[in-house]
Amino acid sequence: MTRRMTSRMPRSVLVIAAAATVILAGCGLDRGFHGVAVDPPRLMPTFEFRRGDGSAYRTNAEAKRPMLVFFGYTHCPDVCPTTMADWQRVKQALGDEAARVRFVFVSIDPERDTPQVADRYAQQFDATFVGLSGDSATTARIQEAFGVASVREPDTRASGYLVSHSSQVFLVDDTGRLVALYAFGRGWDALLADVKQLL
Questions:
Q1: Are the C-beta atoms of residues 176 and 60 closer than 8 Å to each other?
Q2: Tens digit of pLDDT for each residue in 98-120?
Q3: How far apart are CA 15 and CA 116, in angstroms?
Q4: Domain coverage including residue 68
Q5: CATH of the domain at 126
Q6: Total domain count for the chain?
Q7: How many CB atoms lie within 10 A of CB 11?
């Protein structure tokens, strides 16, 4: 389950996630971001996934195309669909400029979320959104790179297990550098303003 940073997440996972956030993000509000600025911006490694149609998708930088990244899972009952709905609002508000923004959802539950399932989930919010799911090793590496923590909770309901996970949205500029992050509940308008700043 994704209760913001979720209070049910084990303390050890919370400590790791908190430390990663401190490393990634300073109080760099002087950069003019409405989110928490990463100061200095951090060059992110490139990861390759297979999409639902079998095509390759790489998270490398693309000129004049910033990228929003969110880590979640398709069985998420609350934070994930709320965040994706916020992305819908951002895309709609951007109008024609939205074509220059990459919206990337990465599953932290590859056991259930195949590439087809992850892609279909993202695209139910918007046909241009990308849903990615990789093997466990790739998932672990990209979570480590972004400082994202997750832990599977015990099976507590007939529909299956929940996954507690970090709930930030990450903003990566067109040079592949992580420049800001947004806690759950920060507001889609803050995200919109900062995306516009990069366009």
A1: yes
A2: 999 999 999 999 999 999 999 99
A3: 33
A4: 11-198
A5: 3.40.30.10
A6: 1
A7: 7
